[in-house]
Amino acid sequence: MYAFDYHKPSSVEEAASLLASKEDATVVAGGQTLIPTLKHRLAQPTDLVDLSGVAELKGVKMDGDTLVIGAMTTHAEVAADATVRSAIPALADLADGIGDAQVRNCGTIGGSVSNNDPAADYPAALLALGATVVTTNRSISADDFFTGMFDTALEPGEIVTEIRLPKPARAAYAKFPNPASRYAIVGVMVAESGGQIRVAVTGAGQDGVFRATDIEQALSGAFSAEAAKAVKVSPETMSADIHASADYRAHLVSVMASRAVAACS
């Protein structure tokens, strides 16, 4: 690693002030992406601002029919939380399938969505559930938040503080995981809210998470696993690597969507 100064603020205001006052400061949440990046010398921040001491960024609550999750809530906490399991059980199941126990106990929902890894699970959940990402500056709809591979609408110095997820009528997530990392080779979240069907895909797109509008249209006509599986997804915008070809990922999108529909509750 390169040398840097370490800060552990106790409030969001203090964290924001540090980010604004330092030459090239970076936030560290769970550190599951940032620490390996630093080890490989792919980043050279002058300062690290550790959010783990900011209590106001942790916790889960209901605000009417909206589930509110603090940005520093870990994957393990999301998976085990009774409020999450009652309001959106599909989200708890998704969190329980992220990485291994070590990752789930260190990684955070805010860190994951801010990093926007193209194979991460949470972006698909936020997009399908019509979530809102709340930051120190504003509220951003999930449709506007995820802007490309490892890219979001976050501006320099802006910190994610909470995620707001409307309670759906039904939802489920199905993932074909990489057997080593548990990242999604293809993961599909299906949700119905207010009579609208939303389907979001992670792990497959060249530009990261995206909505599968063809499958949404098919499910709006007949909400069945067969309807989802019958949609032929084009491989043209699918990514390809040593784990799966574009054609295989395109095929998996329909298969995972059909499994998610079958699991919807």
Labels describing this entry:
5-stranded antiparallel β-sheet; 12 helices; Uridine Diphospho-n-acetylenolpyruvylglucosamine Reductase, domain 3; Uridine Diphospho-n-acetylenolpyruvylglucosamine Reductase, domain 2; globular; 3 domains; Enolase-like, domain 1; single chain; alpha+beta; 265 residues; 4-stranded antiparallel β-sheet
Plain-language structure description:
The protein has 265 residues and is of the alpha+beta class. The protein folds into 3 domains: 5-49, Uridine Diphospho-n-acetylenolpyruvylglucosamine Reductase, domain 2, CATH 3.30.43.10; 58-166, Uridine Diphospho-n-acetylenolpyruvylglucosamine Reductase, domain 3; 170-263, CO dehydrogenase flavoprotein, C-terminal domain (Enolase-like, domain 1), CATH 3.30.390.50. It is 35% helix and 25% strand. It has 12 helices and 14 strands. It has helices at 12-21, 34-39, 75-80, 82-87, 89-96, 101-106, 109-115, 122-129, 142-145, 213-221, 225-229, 246-263; strands spanning 5-7, 25-28, 47-50, 60-63, 66-70, 132-135, 139-141, 146-148, 151-152, 160-166, 170-177, 184-193, 196-202, 210-211. The chain has a 5-stranded antiparallel sheet with strand order 4-5-10-6-7. Strands 11-12-13-14 form a 4-stranded antiparallel sheet, sandwiched between helices. Strand 4 (60-63) and strand 5 (66-70) form a beta hairpin.
